Amino acid sequence: MRLALVLMGGGARAAYQVGALRALAEIARAVDPERRSSPFTVICGTSAGAINAASIASHADDFALGVNLLVDFWSHLEARQIYRTDWLGIAAAGARWLAAMSIGWVVQRAPRALFDNSPLAQLLGEALDFQRVAHLLEARALHAVSVTAMSYTSGRHLTFYEAAEPIQSWRRAQRAARAVALGPAHLLASAAIPFLFPAVPLEIDGITEYFGDGSIRQIAPLSPAIHFGAERIVVLGAAAPRPEVPVAAPETRGYPSLAQIGQQVLASVFLDSIGADIERIEHINSMIRHLPHQVEPESGWRHVDVLPIAPSEHVEVLAARHIKRLPATVRGLLGGVGGNRAAGASFASYLLFEAEFANDLIELGYRDTLAQRERLAGWIASANSLRMV
């Protein structure tokens, strides 16, 4: 049973995944105290989940160490490590948007994004060892690693991957896969939240295309893991099967703020597709159960078990407690769109890269994952035993 780990997007909300990973490492250690390597040989990430995925993949030979490093990073995180929060950086971004709105017809130059995420670009280059990922693939500690991004230039949704052995790239309507040597640019592109962070140029077939967040138009987020041969998939940070609700109902009366509109747009980007993909897989599993066993290989379909682990509490409620942790410059910028009030907490939560909020999410992810301990222990035991054969 090839076991896959799929980490979804969500900006600062991806701290939830770190708590889930902490619980997974604890469960894996309980299943086999002598085993250090990761039970997950397929690791797929999108958006902020791509960054967590690359970090975990680079320590596939020591799962607990990789998780501990992630926990340490997120639990001491500050927004300035992800995007510029200084007055000069914020003022420059604001001035570009103001100029575009007022005299854009003269300069004919649109602003690239609301925030400058050059600190994240520098961090990725310094903190992650992509050569180590390649080495672990060669050593068969990993089977495949992928990150996904969307091209603003062509509209294509591309999965960039590295694998331990040749894997036939796939092509579907408006989505495809490419074998590449993964690097910081792929992660930066995958995590470029639309309008908030700038698109990233990547060369595809000799042509430069600009890529943004991989969650955009991601109609089949589990597809890469399935193409890599996973038979069981653990999804971290998936959407809970319920709509998000505003924190303070009185504030939502009247015309919605830009932040309230923005939170619904981001929810459609980050939360909606995974639920539909899981439903589709469950439908296929149901069909396969009614097929004769000898027909299954010929059909091109196979049974795939999926375990989504999602926040059991409203993330925006947690975010509302910590909005004031954001730097004054960011709160001021968000204030213009209503993102520094309780009703805009959901929108602000994607940018709330602050330790206090991250630690709340880490603890929530840890508890939610331990609630699935029995099933996860069985999956990990099965994966470990088959890798020893």
TrEMBL record:
<feature type="active site" description="Nucleophile">
    <location>
        <position position="47"/>
    </location>
</feature>
<keyword id="KW-0443">Lipid metabolism</keyword>
<dbReference type="InterPro" id="IPR050301">
    <property type="entry name" value="NTE"/>
</dbReference>
<feature type="short sequence motif" description="GXSXG">
    <location>
        <begin position="45"/>
        <end position="49"/>
    </location>
</feature>
<protein>
    <submittedName>
        <fullName>Patatin</fullName>
    </submittedName>
</protein>
<feature type="domain" description="PNPLA">
    <location>
        <begin position="5"/>
        <end position="226"/>
    </location>
</feature>
<keyword id="KW-0442">Lipid degradation</keyword>
<dbReference type="InterPro" id="IPR002641">
    <property type="entry name" value="PNPLA_dom"/>
</dbReference>
<feature type="active site" description="Proton acceptor">
    <location>
        <position position="213"/>
    </location>
</feature>
<keyword id="KW-0378">Hydrolase</keyword>
<dbReference type="GO" id="GO:0016787">
    <property type="term" value="F:hydrolase activity"/>
</dbReference>
<dbReference type="InterPro" id="IPR016035">
    <property type="entry name" value="Acyl_Trfase/lysoPLipase"/>
</dbReference>
<dbReference type="GO" id="GO:0016042">
    <property type="term" value="P:lipid catabolic process"/>
</dbReference>
<dbReference type="Pfam" id="PF01734">
    <property type="entry name" value="Patatin"/>
</dbReference>
